[in-house]
């Protein structure tokens, strides 16, 4: 049986609102509706006896007046009297017969209270019916002489004298009160959810490396405390970023200046050409690692996004490699424009090409492709290197991570993919890493894209080399 509530909750959860505003509003609304229903039942429970006494007094008065009129009227005038009562008061009176076809009243609490009070005033012999023969109404029997059952009559009272009046008005007023309460509940809940939404947007900005605006420290005490703590945290993070940028600028100057002097000294040392080239390569590798540290520590650029032609950007990145004699092939349409930040995207693509050449070897071709895929614009860099095992893909997105067993002969700090992944997350995009058919790695930069994909990629003659 425990599985039944779970099975019932699963489809209900799909229809329930997800936001705090509407969940709380729905809960408050249900509580108000239940409270209104409970109070209406309490009101009815205590109001029904008083109303039953009032209606019973009216019924007894009508019956007693009718009995008195019939007793005091001449026998010849009784028929005229009955017709006059029916015409003027809506009261119908018929002689009762033992064979009368009657339908008893429904067994409800208000009618039980009513019949009890009427019998207390008219006698226990009083009968009630909701239908006499084929006529519907509130029927009450009475005797001209309470001690003699020979002259018994049925009297039918108009339904509006028995039924509760103003029921629709009470329902309208109750509904109006409920609507006012729901509107107040919505205002109360929105006063809480609005600062939470602002805090959520600010937290997302912090997560993407941007500086959020100062949050208002007003409203309920709990919300104000959270906003004050968030502002303090955001301020500390901003100061930490500023200190980090200052330190990195100093590190860049203090490290690269000695490296430049060291390279100059090596080139002028007169050592054999092979040793000079090896030492210069090591110095260049050290300079590149310092650059990676600076790129990773610098974080994401704060400039706004703009329309960037990814095809042109890919041509500008790959052209210097081809001029150096490296086999870097480009397959791109004439143009593919997406919202991006040009400088971080250039850094991300250059990191992927450098990684491909480093791990696959400069003798192997590197294929760069630019294409639209549904609602995304993609730049793919494919190499023929050792690749990345599927169970290591997520780990390789972390900084200072390298596959030593697969790429033991490579150098670097393990920051290339971490930098690319950070850049793509800042663009609300992603970095996909997957094995390439025939061996190698496919690294794909995916950006949100809402433009019209070209009908067919038009490749310029100088965009691909075979």
Report on the structure:
By secondary structure, this protein is α+β, with helices and mostly antiparallel strands. Among the domains are: 12-165, 2-Layer Sandwich (Beta-Lactamase), CATH 3.30.450.300; 301-448, Heat Shock Protein 90, CATH 3.30.565. Helices cover 54% and strands 16% of the residues. It is built from eleven helices and twelve strands. Strands 1-5-4-3-2 form a five-stranded antiparallel sheet. Strands 7-9-10-12-11 form a five-stranded mixed sheet. It is rod-shaped, with a radius of gyration of 45 Å. It starts with a helix and ends in an 18-residue tail after the last strand. Mean pLDDT is 76; it is low at 405-410 and 453-466.
**How confident is the prediction overall: mean pLDDT?**
76
Which regions contain 5 or more consecutive residues with pLDDT less than 50? 405-410, 453-466
Strand percentage? 15-25%
CA radius of gyration: 45 Å
Count, helices: 11
- Separation of termini? 68 Å
SSE-based structural type: alpha+beta
* CATH class assignment of the domain at 12-165: Alpha Beta
Write out the strand line-up for the largest beta sheet, numbering strands in chain order. Answer: 1-5-4-3-2
Strand count, sense and barrel status of the largest sheet are: 5 strands, antiparallel
Q: What is the fold named in CATH at topology level of the domain at 12-165?
A: Beta-Lactamase
SSE string: HHHEEHEEEHHHHEHEEHEEHEE
Enzyme class: transferase
EC number: 2.7.13.3
Transmembrane segments: 20-43, 170-189
Catalytic activity: ATP + protein L-histidine = ADP + protein N-phospho-L-histidine
